[in-house]
Design brief:
Layout lengths: L4 H11 L5 E6 L2 E6 L2 E6 L5 E4 L2 H8 L4 E3 L10 E4 L7 H17 L47
Antiparallel strand pairs: 1-2, 2-3, 3-4, 4-6, 5-6
Length: 153
């Protein structure tokens, strides 16, 4: 596994009993969701990823143990990393995970149930008409009936 399974188990214990909690494996890490909305996660580097929303972003960024989440090379507003060694045991982990889970729980339910693509290919009904045929099947010129040759006498 690319993420720390023991750290993920600690987060599971904090979220145990909360309704609507799910897990999604993505980008080499593990994301925990509440009602389909990302709450927190553990990444490849071992830090805790939390979602706190744009209104609390600047306030919590001032904390000594947090840093901006810049997963794609630019800062993601409302998302922070908390250093794993700064969590200070179960009480510190519970504080940050509860903060993130409460925010995600306050959002509208996400309609997405499973973001992983299906293993079965999508079956579409066959298209009809000349315009939708394979190019090899489309005649190069319209079909015109040829006049019959005159009967020989």
């Amino acid at each position: 596994m690319a993420y720390d399974e023991q750290f993920a188990e600690r987060i599971r214990r904090v979220l145990d009993g909360r309704p609507g909690v799910g897990e999604i494996k993505m980008f080499g890490g593990l994301c925990f969701t509440v009602n389909g909305n990302m709450a927190c996660g553990v990444g490849k580097d071992g830090d805790l990823m939390i979602r706190v929303g744009a209104d609390r972003h600047e306030e919590l960024l001032g904390h000594a143990d947090t840093r901006e989440m810049d997963f794609t090379g630019r800062s993601l507003t409302g998302m922070l990393y908390v250093r794993e060694d700064a969590l200070g045991g179960e009480a510190g982990l519970r504080h940050w995970v509860t903060l993130a889970a409460d925010y995600a729980g306050s959002l509208r339910h996400s309609r997405r149930r499973n973001r992983r693509p299906s293993k079965r290919p999508l079956r579409r009904p066959p298209r009809r008409g000349v315009a939708n045929r394979h190019p090899a099947q489309v005649p190069s010129r319209p079909h015109r009936p040829q006049p019959r040759p005159a009967a020989r006498q």
